[in-house]
Every structure is written in C-alpha cells, then in structure tokens.
Design brief:
With 142 residues, the protein is an alpha+beta fold. The protein is built from seven helices and four strands, in the order αβααββαβααα. 35% of the residues lie in helices and 19% in strands. A hairpin with a 2-residue loop joins strand 2 and strand 3 (60-70). Bound molecules: iron/sulfur cluster.
Length: 142
Amino acid sequence: MNGRSSDVPDWKEYYEEMKETCPLTVYYPICGGGEECITVCPWGTSIWEVRPMRTPMFGRGYRVRLRPVMVNPELCRKCYLCVEACPTGALRPVGNPVRHPYLTLLYNSVKLFFKKRYGFKFVFRKEHREKFKKNNAAELDG
Ligand code: SF4
C-alpha cells in the first residue's frame, strides 16, 4: 500500500482486526515503530510486516506512520519474546490489553533502566534507530 494514498486506515482498524484474529495486538498510539518486536521474533518477517496507518505517537502527530502488523498469526508460538522486547508496552497478549496508555508508557519507559535484556542498549541499537526514523518519516504522509 502506498502511504500517500488517502485511504490509509486509522490505527484502530488494525488494532481491532488483530484483536479478533491474532494472539497479540498493538495499541498503536504508544508504539514508537522501532520494530524491536520483529527483531526478536524467531519468525520475524514471516509473521510481521510494517504497514501504513494513521496514528499519533505518544499523544502527538496523528498522521501516516509505518507500524508492525501480524500478517501470519498462525505461525506465532506464543513465546512472548516480542512482548518482552516492546519498549513501550504497546504490544500485548489480546487477553491483557492496554487500559491506561500513558501510565503503561511511563511504566515501561522507567523499566528500560532495569531490564536485563531489551533495555536501552537494545532499543537504541543502530538498526532500531534507523527503523524508527523510516517508520515515522514525515514524507510518509505525502
Ligand atoms: S509471541 Fe513469539 S512467535 Fe509470536 S510473534 Fe511474538 S516473538 Fe514471534
């Protein structure tokens, strides 16, 4: 899909669809788009794809961004490595959805200081910084 098209869906469409069809869903307004989930998933891009959607990021800038979507959920082994690696708490098992987005974001940001794996060092790896830039580029909005 072309990010410039006017029919790019709102994040809620993907959120609701994943809730119905996948073991995990992403509360996109607090997803940063660094693709940490895809990096750690043993099946990576066989399960995940980044898709354009209209979403704010951390309460700002509602516009087209690229965000991870489970395209082959049947391959998921429910190991939850991706949930553990998500730096913001946006990615959750369907049965445990985000209820207080900003508290979740704050809690998970503080947690980054204490995480043994998938802490700051992991999140700020070059590949994640580059993916963050690509997936939040202003040009995506046309
Ligand atoms: S739960 Fe495990 S297998 Fe499923 S998407 Fe996450 S990392 Fe991949």
